[in-house]
């Protein structure tokens, strides 16, 4: 019977069961929806039994499906651990932890964290992948990363926990030559040329919500994905931006003036990991060091 079980199909079945729909599983696994349907139907054909109840608002497992999903989770964990053990043996490494980081944590926070990890845990190979927070949640859900530093809020995923970790003030970044007030209001900033993050980002959503408190809906002169490029444009006098402010070096040698927002806005980062699962010893040690950088405001 084992030769009839395909790990990719089992992973698909688990995702459909946990997310409750074929379309959600397709998005999480980066598969076409027909491929997800084919994986499940081939499993049902091979096992000669129905595994999922379709047709309702949420796809649910049958009794047989629930039995298989429970065992499939263990099989997938065992397969992943087996591959990892072979790789470690091949490379002579003690352990590996896969850390995902949003771009918002990358510039100043991530290098500090990695420096401490290298100093205190030299035997652990920390592999970093940088992506948008929503993408990292998907990767964590399917097991491609062990933990992730993400911006919040995030859509809930079954089996994942998201714990508040670090708050950073959102500030108005203005060209140094502009005459600015002591605190920037939506009314003042809306009349200036603006540089926004791309609409898919949480920073953009927070920015537009801040303007909306004053009933304003300004348009940007340009929209950018990378904060470092945005800062360069501000320094060149192209416009103003609203971004999280982490470090004095972000003023680019005084070419940018950083002014508080009124009302104030905070960007919150969180640590996301699998809930109810005992982390490997190496992953837990990495988490412990990440938590040393915890900084929440008002707590």
UniProtKB/TrEMBL annotation:
Keyword Transmembrane applies: no
Record has Metal-binding as a keyword: no
Cited CDD domains: PBP2_LTTR_substrate (cd05466)
Domain of life: Bacteria
Segments forming domain HTH lysR-type: 5-62
GO molecular function: DNA binding; DNA-binding transcription factor activity
One Gene Ontology CC term in the entry: cytosol
Alphabetic keyword roster: DNA-binding, Transcription, Transcription regulation
Family recorded in the similarity comment: Belongs to the LysR transcriptional regulatory family.
Protein name: LysR family transcriptional regulator
Organism: Caldimonas brevitalea
Lineage: Bacteria, Pseudomonadati, Pseudomonadota, Betaproteobacteria, Burkholderiales
